[in-house]
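The material for today's practical consists of a large collection of protein records. There is nothing in a record beyond a sequence line and a structure line. As an example, a complete record with its sequence and its structure tokens follows:
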Amino acid sequence: MNEIFLDTETTGLSYKDNHRIVEIACIETKSLIPTKNVFHKLINPEREVPEEAFKIHGFDYKFLKTKDKFEKIAKEFVKFVQNKKIIIHNAPFDLGFINNELRLVKRDEIKKEQIIDSLEIAREKYPGASNSLDALCKRFNIDLSRRIKHNALLDCELLREVYINLLGVKEPKLVFSNDKDEKNISIQKNKSFDYCKKVIKPSSEEILKHKDFLRKEFKKNFY
């Protein structure tokens, strides 16, 4: 089963106060390796964006009202995430907003069984510590220089790196083929390669010279 790393930006802290999603991003991975399938939309929230929210993500209503409403992107979103594990940091927040949007357009909600909450994993691993996405990036030495403002797509990329570190697995490596078009990429895991260097044996004379060198230069006899 493929995974989805998901993040949203909103007009406020609670959908119960009629706040809405303004940005949604999903990055698909297979065994935590990006498949290059990405779902990213800016959304018309059909309401004003409070100053506090604008300071966080930088999207105002004048800009967002030209974007599609959630009902227009709902079908594409549901198809993108269906039958995949969805990894979210602080899942109750994002899932609450997403399911509220789905209810408004009369679509089935995403079930909790489909969700992995990376915040819960972090709290179990580092109880009592700050486990925000920023704090975890700093803990794992993940570059935050691009994160000037909150951005759902960037946060998905950061979350993938954080999640890999939380699980304690190594970052998967890519090995590129020699094809001219560079389109074929194969993932090599735990694969051994034949030793390709030529081994040259020293001559009898070289061995004798080496022993003589050791005898003269070192107090301890290593030969």
